[in-house]
């Protein structure tokens, strides 16, 4: 008759779980880099498409993208500029949370601005928003310029106090 306590099975399960968590944590910087690379490509390509045919872009902001409170011309310039600058910041992980927040807001404005968005397009925007939310919440990761820039900037602020990232 086996008289070993049932906790040995739980102990083994706990050890396996701990190993799995450590393995997943080791993959986190690579996952954050891939997320940054993916989302930067999506928005940067969109910006390149807009500057390739500026007249059509302004027409789209006039006819289809109903951005509240802004003229179509101003909305086109701001949206296109954000789609070209913020992805570069995200890709290199420099001011990564700021860039993720900016693209997150841009993504929301895009969804709100299109009156009849097809379900597949809405699902894409939801996915992009999820990736951006992850980058906003957990930051660009260890393999980013933020990892090196923020401690350097914090050390050079008055009194050594800077916002924590």
Distance between the termini: 57 Å
Could you report the average pLDDT, rounded to the nearest whole number? 91
Order of helices and strands: HHHHHH
Overall 3D form? elongated
What do you see in this structure?
It contains 6 helices and no strands. It has helices at residues 7-52, 54-63, 72-92, 96-113, 119-138, 145-155.
Tag the structure with descriptive keywords.
165 residues; 6 helices; single chain
Summarize the structure.
It contains six helices and no strands. With 165 residues, it is an all-alpha fold. The chain has one domain (28-160).
SSE arrangement:
Layout lengths: L6 H46 L1 H10 L8 H21 L3 H18 L5 H20 L6 H11 L10
Helix pairs in contact: 1-3, 1-5, 2-3, 3-4, 4-5
């Amino acid at each position: 008759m086996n008289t070993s306590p049932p906790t040995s099975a739980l102990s083994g399960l706990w050890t396996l779980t701990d190993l799995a968590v450590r393995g997943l944590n080791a993959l986190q910087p690579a996952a954050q880099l891939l997320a940054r690379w993916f989302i930067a490509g999506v928005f940067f390509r969109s910006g390149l498409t807009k500057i390739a045919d500026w007249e059509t872009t302004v027409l789209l902001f006039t006819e289809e993208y109903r951005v509240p409170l802004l003229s179509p011309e101003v909305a086109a310039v701001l949206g296109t500029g954000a789609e070209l600058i913020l992805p570069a910041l995200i890709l290199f992980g420099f001011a990564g949370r700021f860039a993720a927040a900016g693209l997150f807001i841009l993504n929301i404005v895009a969804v709100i601005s299109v009156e009849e968005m097809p379900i597949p397009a809405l699902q894409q925007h939801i996915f992009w928003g999820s990736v951006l939310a992850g980058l906003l919440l957990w930051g660009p990761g260890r393999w980013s310029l933020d990892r090196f820039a923020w401690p350097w900037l914090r050390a050079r602020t008055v009194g050594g106090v800077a916002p924590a990232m």
